Amino acid sequence: MNCKIATIPGDGIGPDIVREGCRVLDAVGLKFGHSFSYTPVLAGGAALDATGEPLPQATLDACLASDAVLLGAVGGPKWDTLPGSKRPEKALLGLRAGMKVYANLRPALMFRQLADACPLKSEVVGDGLDILIVRELTGGIYFGDRGRNADNTAAWDTEAYSIPEIERVVKIGFESAMKRKNKLCVVDKANILETSRLWREVTEAMKASYPTVELSYMYVDNAAMQLVRNPRQFDVIVTSNMFGDILSDEASQITGSIGMLASASLGDSGPGLYEPIHGSAPDIAGKDLANPLATILTCAMMLRYSFSMEKESAAIEAAVEKVLDAGWRTGDIAGGAEARSRLGDKLVGTKKMGDLVVEALKAL
Ligand SMILES: NC(=O)c1ccc[n+]([C@@H]2O[C@H](COP(=O)([O-])OP(=O)(O)OC[C@H]3O[C@@H](n4cnc5c(N)ncnc54)[C@H](O)[C@@H]3O)[C@@H](O)[C@H]2O)c1
Ligand SMILES: CC(C)[C@H](C(=O)O)[C@@H](O)C(=O)O
Ligand SMILES: [Mg+2]
């Protein structure tokens, strides 16, 4: 199969992790007889510097013309004082809306090899953690009316959801639960927000079509607490754009590091957008310290969801497991000071971690 992938290296650690992702895809291509071609395009701070726009039309056009899009991360202190419409992060919203990828699947999976990197007690996480957060991605407060009053003494951002917007993402939540442990939790703030009450009404109207799924509702403040107290009670969480953003960063830390969490953003048709859930990590950019595994696992999601390449996707995941089994770690998953000091030359950087996954893949 020939697959055309638009790549958006972006800013900070973005170029380094996307490079490792593409190297792993190339190794999969060699092993299984596929060819992946890459069209690098500009978005975020890199695009601002080159063109004055965070998301040039040519970038969106190239993404829509591709079979899938791989994005590193955008943003950084250099562009933090720009007005909202010119910030690098605006590119993300433009891409997500322009590609109509309304469902963001964010698996929070704890690799058993990383139990030491989890900050929770072992009796809380047991033999692992496997939660799927389905985050609504093209609506809610990220896209609602916003502004300031004339004398700049007040500002507003509006949360708005329509029934079709809720239905399509809740449907993904139910369907995802049916492929997993048949549990779906709608996380909201229905004790206060009208949008959340509409989410509940829509979900109630849909639930009869999914009789095998055990459905529950939870307020987001409680969910944030329960994720730390008893994360294994969750299977699939479906939630709004902003709640999903926040809860997925929280869940990532339980699995060991945000440097491990992949994501797939999907719509009804057209290319999917694939990005690790973390950002451009300006504090470690350019130092070969970033963990590329979130991006590499994001590539595995791309193979599974956009190209139906299940065995190829599983091969990437198996290669990552082999590397972790052999004890290799980047700094973010090295554990505490004592564990880190025991690692010796198994404490590696971005590029070496990519090399190790490629080697493990070849050897499978
Ligand atoms: N999808 C995206 O492009 C995206 C996502 C989140 C944040 N951002 C942007 O990134 C910039 C930095 O944001 P932030 O600091 O809040 O979040 P961040 O995710 O970039 O970093 C948070 C912390 O996690 C660490 N970290 C993140 N990814 C890592 C990796 N792969 N390996 C090791 N450590 C990693 C960082 O070093 C930092 O200490 C901001 O401009 C923000 O808007 C972009
Ligand atoms: C950078 C920001 C706009 C983005 C979001 O909030 O969606 C990020 O935090 C993410 O999780 O992809
Ligand atoms: Mg986020």
From TrEMBL:
Swiss-Prot/TrEMBL site (Important for catalysis) positions: Y142, K189
Keywords of this entry: Amino-acid biosynthesis, Branched-chain amino acid biosynthesis, Cytoplasm, Leucine biosynthesis, Magnesium, Manganese, Metal-binding, NAD, Oxidoreductase
An MF annotation (GO) of this entry: magnesium ion binding
Organism: Teretinema zuelzerae
Domain Isopropylmalate dehydrogenase-like: 4-357
One cellular-component annotation, GO: cytosol
Binding site for Mg(2+): D221, D245, D249
EC assignment: 1.1.1.85
Annotated cofactor note: Binds 1 Mg(2+) or Mn(2+) ion per subunit.
Pathway: Amino-acid biosynthesis; L-leucine biosynthesis; L-leucine from 3-methyl-2-oxobutanoate: step 3/4
Name this polypeptide is given: 3-isopropylmalate dehydrogenase
Cell compartment(s), UniProt: Cytoplasm
